[in-house]
Fold this protein.
Amino acid sequence: MAAKRIRHHVNPLALQYLDFDPAPLPDLSSASVVEVELGCAEGDFLFDRVRDTSGDVLIVGLEIRRKLVDRINEKAARMGLAHRLVAVFANLNVHIPEIFPPASVDRFFFNFPDPWFKNSQKKRRVVSRQVVEELIKALKPGGQILFQSDVFDIALDAMYSFEAFGCPPLVNESGEWSFIRHNPFGTMSRRERHVTEDGTRVWRILYSLPS
Ligand SMILES: C[S@@+](CC[C@H](N)C(=O)[O-])C[C@H]1O[C@@H](n2cnc3c(N)ncnc32)[C@H](O)[C@@H]1O
């Protein structure tokens, strides 16, 4: 059977991606730690994160390409990991408050979000003021956000949104307006592995919500 074609990019502002209900998550309060990758693509990071963490940790991936979500969930079921790993078909620009109750998430990962770096496409950038406010509401006290990109302008734009719109303010773990050199969590996404092998510089920012 021919493999189904999966689009490389979709426009998150297209009507079909703004107006749908994401599938509900399992009860997050039953996991002691909840981690979320925003834009998980094929889910490599999610499976590696399950391998790299132990105990009662739930790893969630949000992804706007539905076929990838189905494949990830099928693979997790085949591997007997469905209780630890779940992918959700959702638009992170729209659905975060619907999916995550207040103070329910320990860690958000923004691993190499799509590079909408032309000025005319700025409105498509994933880290808007609204997204920052919604992530802060969803984080537990002491929760963290790791953002990483190999595109400097994207990382700088994200840093601006996080530092300017955090309310309560997020704490930049390297000091205001600063990047961290290394990924403190060890687990690499597919894109991170690729650019690291190339020797491309990765721009990383780590924030925490005061306890
Ligand atoms: C460049 S890929 C990075 C994938 C992975 N995080 C990595 O580092 O290898 C970005 C992913 O985010 C997804 N994405 C883009 N905009 C999104 C949105 N608004 N909501 C959910 N997922 C989105 C894309 O479909 C794509 O799979």
The first strand starts at residue 33 and ends at 38. The chain has a mean pLDDT of 91. The longest helix spans residues 152-165.
